[in-house]
Amino acid sequence: MGDPAGIGPEICIKALSIPDVYERCQPLVVGDASVMLLTAKSMQSTLKIHAIQSVKEAVFAHGTIDVLDLKNVVLSELALGEVSAMSGNAAFEAVKKVIDLALAEEVDATVTAPINKESIHKAVPRNGSWKSFRY
After folding, report:
1. Is the pLDDT of residue 133 over 80?
2. Number of domains present in the structure of the chain
3. Above 60 in pLDDT, residue 33?
4. Disulfide: which of 2, 70, 88, 95 matches 123 by Cβ 3.0-4.6 Å?
5. Residue 6 CB-density burial (10 A; 0-12 exposed, 13-18 middle, 19+ buried)
6. CB contact at 8 A, 51 and 33
7. Residues 3, 70: Cα–Cα separation, whole Å
């Protein structure tokens, strides 16, 4: 999904509105389903946002965007277009999750939508350790 405060969710929705994408792969968005739903509504998209907790729950069908929901964004605190630790953490956690999925061979490939390095830097704990880090 990329940075939830950036253009990543919109790019995902636009890309997954193309039927050919589903003929070439089984796309899965990793991030926050509530952000994807908010973005779909703002774009007046008719695509369904399908929040899931595991890859096995995905339907991989055009018209439905499967979102592995990490639930790490508080919508009331999300400021679109703004740099924030919450958005940086959400982007980092999504990248970390897709790498874990790839290493576990649950997905074959990964790609990220745009992320904001400044937001990620804001999310870095003061001791610089990412182990067990949460916003």
Report:
1. no
2. 1
3. yes
4. 88
5. buried
6. yes
7. 13
pLDDT at 125: 65
Tens of pLDDT, residue by residue over 65-90, are: 999 999 999 999 999 999 999 999 99
The CATH number of residue 114's host domain is 3.40.718.10
> If you write DSSP's letter for every residue of 83-111 in order, what string do you get?
--HHHHHHHHHHHHHHHHHHHTTS-S---
Residue 108 lies in a domain: yes
CA Rg, the chain, in Å?
A: 14
The reply to whether 29 falls in a domain is: yes
Phi, psi of 64 (to 5 degrees): -130, 130
Other beta carbons within 10 Å of 99 = 12
Statement: residue 53 has pLDDT above 50: yes
| Containing structural domain, residue 118 | 8-123
CA dihedral of residues 62, 20, 80, 130 (deg, nearest 10): 90
